[in-house]
Design a protein that fits this description.
The protein has about 575 residues and is mainly alpha-helical. It folds into two domains: about 325 residues, no CATH class; about 230 residues, Up-down Bundle (Methane Monooxygenase Hydroxylase, Chain G, domain 1). It has 23 helices and no strands. It is elongated, with a radius of gyration of 30 Å.
Length: about 575
């Protein structure tokens, strides 16, 4: 029992070190990794490269495939493009085996692991963010290989346990049936530890200690390739049809690879053994040779599987569509529902998931703009009952509130993981923008209710159809589109901001001019008092929309400005009369 707990503790140290390495690498190169993820929508070869690079960096194929499932579910990635990324992720995860071989078995890091942790700990206190992140990387690096050292010492030598050796030998000498048994063991092992990297470390340690030979260890590795797909499958359960198809494609890709590999298993193993012996620089190191064979088998299997199946990506896509049928009552998911799925499974990758969060912020802006356009369409038809259109806009406003709430929680969850300084600024900026967009959607819905009140009360006035007010609404719409374009770019120049300020000043002058005209008409009796007051309130809500748009533009340039003190009270315009 003591040995079991030692193995579990060693695995815990190994996984913690790997997670620390992954987090620090994301902070060091998070922006570049997000750029890679954002350019995945090319051909399948670009997808393979993207999956390879991202998985190599974050050292987790499961994280990459969950990310891909999320992107497909959100409509940011097509299923065919996702298949290429999944292929690259399978190849990228083989880097872990080579790290273990090169540093965990060929070299003993027990004497230098602690000094590495000490150096990293000292660097983690430096003011320069990049040095601090590199220090955390060194800590993770040291802990990872301390975990391997503890794992090697925890697993007993088979020569000292003849009874266990006899039991394993009983199941190891059953020919092809033994291969299938140990393949199943690899699937179960990966399902238990929920990490193909940890399962790989256990497999290599068992082989190095003499518990199993190369062929059986290779069979376990094949099982691990199937077992690692469970994470994406579980993540897809709450997603839509496309999310489930992306996850099942990952499973199909690996299962098909294992099937054809079993057909040539003995031949492939002999070829790997010959290749490993040819490149081995220490022929007397039997343990090092065995672990090299396993790492080489893992890499060559996944690489060959990509070569075999890369030409059949359209067929894999069709297979996924056949296996996962859309539900008869399935409707298109709203942005809120997509984000709810994402926030449940995706925020553990704090740096990389910001890309998806920013896309949803843009969708929130699109929904707000759509509501304002709905208002301008309604007020131009004062004699028509547009209840159906108003109900649709009310549903959009409800989705805006849900999406804003979900996005806020999403970014808060992202900050529960340490982020780089640039990513932290991105989170702050998005939190400010979300609040402004939510207030803007509330203003738009208030405009819609005022337009409905005008129809219900039958205010027969001409003011809402006046050329000045129509021009005012058109200018606000242009201002909203400008803010939306800057939000897509995630950047605004000083010149753009100056132009925005001029536009806001111009809008305020138009509003004041219309307001004075309305007041004059009420005093002269040319307009009803109630109709005039309703119109003035509409002008006020339009002003607030312009104010929130301006706040968004200023947040894009410097989000900290809006935390120095609110420029406007809730629902009050920036520029006063």
């Amino acid at each position: 029992m003591g040995t079991l707990f030692q193995i579990i503790g060693s695995l815990g140290l190994f996984l913690f070190g790997m997670k620390l390495m992954s987090d620090s690498l994301q902070k060091l190169a998070g922006e570049r990794l997000r750029s890679i993820m954002s350019t995945m929508t090319g051909n399948r070869f670009k997808g393979i490269f993207s999956g390879l690079v991202v998985t190599t960096a974050i050292q987790s194929s499961s994280a990459t495939t969950v990310m891909v499932v999320s992107f497909v579910n959100a409509g940011l990635l097509k299923l065919r493009e996702a298949i290429g990324v999944i292929m690259g992720a399978n190849l990228g995860t083989t880097v872990t085996a080579w790290i273990i071989v090169c540093f965990g078995f060929k070299f003993s890091l027990s004497d230098i692991a602690l000094p590495i942790v000490g150096i990293g700990f000292a660097m983690s206190f430096m003011k320069k963010i990049s040095w601090k992140n590199f220090g955390e990387f060194l800590i993770g690096f040291g802990l990872l290989f301390m975990g391997i050292e503890f794992l090697k010492s925890s697993v007993p030598d088979m020569t000292q346990h003849p009874e266990a050796f006899e039991w394993i030998t009983k199941y190891a000498n059953m020919g092809f049936l033994s291969v299938l048994l140990f393949l199943g063991f690899g699937i179960i092992l990966t399902l238990i530890v929920q990490s193909s990297s940890a399962a790989m470390a256990i497999t290599m340690t068992m082989a190095a200690k003499g518990w199993i030979g190369f062929e059986l260890a290779a069979a376990i590795i094949l099982g691990e390739n199937i077992g690692t797909t469970i994470t994406a499958i579980l993540a897809s359960l709450t997603g839509g049809t496309n999310a489930k198809r992306a996850a099942i494609t990952h499973l199909c890709f690996n299962v098909i690879g294992v099937i054809w590999m079993l057909c040539v298993f003995n031949f492939f193993c002999k070829g790997i053994s010959s290749l490993a012996e040819a490149i081995n620089t220490t022929p007397n190191d039997a343990q090092g040779l065995l672990t090299t064979k396993l790492a080489l088998f893992h890499t060559m299997f996944n690489f060959t599987n990509i070569l075999v199946l890369v030409g059949f990506v359209p067929m894999l896509e069709k297979l996924a569509c056949i296996l996962i049928k859309p539900k008869a009552n399935e409707r298109k998911s709203t942005p809120y529902e997509r984000l709810e799925y994402l926030s449940t499974h995706f925020t553990d990758i704090g740096e990389l998931c910001l890309f998806e969060g920013q896309k949803e912020v843009v969708k929130l802006a699109e929904m707000s703009t759509k509501m304002f356009n709905g208002f301008t369409d309604i007020f131009q038809k004062p004699d028509e009952d547009l209840s159906d259109q108003i109900n649709e806009l009310r549903k959009i406003e409800e989705d805006c509130d849900k999406l804003a709430y979900a996005l806020t929680n999403f970014f808060i969850q992202c900050t529960s993981h340490e982020l780089s300084e640039q990513s932290t600024n991105t989170v702050v900026k998005n939190m400010v923008i979300i609040a402004e967009l939510e207030d803007m959607s509330d203003c738009c819905y208030r405009l819609i209710t005022l337009a409905r009140k005008r129809y219900r009360k039958q205010f027969k006035d001409h003011m809402l159809q006046s050329p000045a007010f129509v021009q005012f609404c058109e200018e606000i719409d242009k201002f909203l589109l400008f803010a939306h374009r800057m939000l897509l770019q995630q950047n605004i120049t000083s010149e753009d901001l100056e132009n925005a300020i001029k536009t806001r000043t111009m809008l305020d002058k138009i509003r004041k001019s219309i307001r004075k005209e309305v007041i004059a008409e009420i005093e002269l009796g040319a307009a009803s008092a109630k109709g005039g007051i309703l119109f003035i309130e509409i002008l006020g809500q339009c002003e607030k929309i312009g104010a929130h748009s301006m706040n968004i533009l200023e947040a894009l340039q410097n989000p900290s400005m809006l935390f120095a003190g609110p420029k406007i009270a809730k629902g009050q315009p920036v520029l006063q009369n």
